[in-house]
Amino acid sequence: MGKGGENYGKEESSSMPSSNREVFPAWAKDTQECKEKYQVTCEEGLSSAEVEKRRQIHGYNELEKHEGVSIFKLILDQFSDTLVRILLAAAVVSFVLAWLDGEEGGEMQITAFVEPLVIFLILIVNAIVGIWQESNAEKALEALKEIQSEQATVIRDGKKISNVPAKELVPGDIVELKVGDKVPADMRVLSLISSTFRVEQGSLTGESEAVSKTAKAVPENSEIQGKKCMVFAGTTVVNGNCICLVTQTGMSTELGQVHSQIHEASQNEEDTPLKKKLNEFGEVLTSIIGVICALVWLINVKYFLTWEYVDGWPKNFKFSFEKCTYYFEIAVALAVAAIPEGLPAVITTCLALGTRKMAQKNALVRKLPSVETLGCTTVICSDKTGTLTTNQMSVTKLVAMGTQPGNLRSFTVEGTTYNPFDGKIQDWPMGRMDANLQMIAKIAAVCNDAGVENAGNHFVASGMPTEAALKVLVEKMGFPGGTEDGSSSGHSNVLRCCQLWNKLEQRIATLEFDRDRKSMGVIANSSSAKKMLLVKGAVENVLERSSFVQLLDGSVVELDQYGKDHILENLCEMSTGALRCLGFAYKDDLPEFATYNGDEDHPAHELLLNPNNYSSIESNLVFVGLVGLRDPPRREVSQAIEDCKAAGIRVMVITGDNKNTAEAICREIGVFGPDESMSSRSLTGREFMDHPDQKKYLRQSGGLLFSRAEPRHKQEIVRLLKEDGEVVAMTGDGVNDAPALKLADIGIAMGISGTEVAKEASDMVLADDNFSTIVAAVGEGRSIYNNMKAFIRYMISSNIGEVASIFLTAALGIPEGMIPVQLLWVNLVTDGPPATALGFNPPDKDIMKKPPRRSDDSLIDAWILFRYLVIGLYVGIATVGVFIIWYTHDTFLGIDLSGDGHSLVTYSQLANWGQCHSWEGFSAKPFTAGSTVYKFQSDPCDYFHSGKIKASTLSLSVLVAIEMFNSLNALSEDGSLLSMPPWVNPWLLLAMSVSFGLHFLILYVPVLAQVFGIVPLSLNEWLLVLAVALPVILIDEVLKFVGRCTSEWRYSGTQRSSKYKSE
Prior knowledge:
eight-stranded mixed beta sheet; single chain
């Protein structure tokens, strides 16, 4: 093998990024130099031996399969969460204590093991869900492989071989491409076999139309869109055929680089803002639990560790293992009480409900946490083509000739889609078209290879988008004669007028479009029994070859310089407005084709076989008019941009399209104001990469535009925005967008026009490809976050209450009021339905009028924490208080509690219950609970162990009742229940009923009551529960009133603080 080819191969086999290695710039070299570099000729191709040698260097032409994360690591990752670790530690300790207790013949084993087993079950389910979500992460890379070509036609050993597996290609192979082929590798075009060769590469480069390719070299510093002599792996040939030279294979191709970028981006995925806050909360919670456990032990150390002072020194230490394990159990109970175990399940349920709501608005969420992240989006980086625009070319302006050569008529054409019934032509002479307008319609209909079909609820084009737009224009123009007018044809026959024109003017030959003359022509058997040449193309080129002009009445006059200048003025005006212009002309003087009917033996047919003759055939034309086309913005986008501005969300447009077109669209949809200067707000991707202070540029308020952007530019913009603390939503549809979609906080793919690669890399898919759907989804995300905040606060306030209850129990030295399994039941089951129902709170009306919350905003601010500490303290006092009331009072607030016949003790006795065996003459009467009578003749002190079951049930019932009433407080952060009554969220009332029902179930079903260590309550005891629980509403109403009165002062303080931080 030649030395040059060998060196090149070694460079390419490097795994370094393309930006850091030297690549032979085949696009900047002429075809002969490229063939010499790769030691190959078009006629012979590579030899089989040479192919094998090169494969040793470059490997197969396929994308790498990256090693996935091992299942063991995925399992370990599920236990990296702080809350999960606390819970795991609590479960292990609880299990060990239950085992030891069972060994010593302690409490019934079924009760002892319920708690650790339930905690382990929660952790296992949580881990399974996490592993399932993460194992789907690499699907984008698999989808990328599917767009690779499978086979290729290759010249090797001087023979053309069809169906060679594409993975066997090596640099230097000579490949033939034809219409419909998928390009198998990055290749340099050596020669065109057809007069034109076009490739659809929008999915890789972001261009809105198929690109014509050439064999001519281009500058070495050209962007990917400017490499007109290169074809790229994974793109599709839509027109013509050519011979190419393979220059890059496998991971060295542009597609391979996208593959590497997706993999790299997937390694850098960050936690969502909510998960970060919950992790921070978990860390704080760990500290709080540690401090409280230490306090509980310090307060009660006298019970399990005693000593005597001898000569001023502590001696004769006595340690009670039984009492030590008892306080260890209290520590476990504290951990169980402090952790909202039901929170993961409630968050998942709320996010799942959110995804259903979003699906109704055409936003399909693929990853649940994305729902919450959407709510704090601060920047939307949007593609232009197909998202802000319809991705359907349409004619917006029609210019026809007037009564004199310099006199032009202009018509505005409505509609933005391929639907012929979408809009009309303003001031149109319906049914009485003049000769000039008829000629324009005839050329647009006959000199055209496209089609339009009705595909269910929308219209789709086949062929070139510009030609499809012209056919839609013909339908809007109608057909000469009122009865055959296009508007009366109904929806059944989409292109009725075009069919009628094609019937009148039967095509017999085509002069294909080429890059030099920039026009296409057809020869038709005209209804006037003459042959007619109909031409459409770039206005300047068609005008240059025109000698005459057709006027309004159909008369033909010479085209003078004044007439030409006037037409070019109109062209300049339309081009400035980012319209793509096409001119129309015809010729009816074709002596050499007078008898031609498509027969290959006719002398004129020889002229058509050589494209070099087309310019001379298309000379001395009669110019008839021009049209302006564009990919128009969606109707609803302007309002969506306004909504973004009102919501404090910045919109940045990042497109592969050219600068002028993108600027015109951005100004029209409101990204830029009508008089706003775009000089400092509109850059190409390359200009941005060369900018001296990129972060400062991105921090500008208002909209920004990046045109001619490549995948690496998009990634860099997203990376810099994220570094600056922005929460970035990125839209995309092509393969080239996948790395940036993966890197963004929210990757949004297009459902209709999007590639599978983009969809798999995304967090959300738009079913309608519409930018306004993103804005609606952001609003929904904000609403869901507010509701999640409500139930997270509700659950946390409940847990503060449980911790306060246990702490007070330990601090006061009274018997343990609630066992861990009861707390677990409250956290998981009783709290679950109301917390989930809070997710159905109606959204605030001004939700999209407020600025986005910062991702580092605290979930619970100082005031909210104070409020819940007050509420939590009350929960602790109420649950411990009712326990003490049952032991020490026979009536409370006029409620008789003596009906069960239990014995009363003093508070001092209750607080020193551990010394019961030393009390003289202490006895406890039997009491009734449900159908069971509890007796204490053999051991009166058992009254504080098994006898506490009624008091413990009262404590648990008070806790459940307070948490139900507290859920009503969580309906609004500061709003009173008088302004937001419970029935604004009927789901909450239903959930409260369910929770109370579940509590009654464990109270009144004997088997469950035995498991949870509780007994049925009497009517009077329920009255006591309500009397102790209801004040929580009054306390929070007072706190809310104080909150409303001080909100302005607190808000301004927060603003000053955040401003100071940012400075």
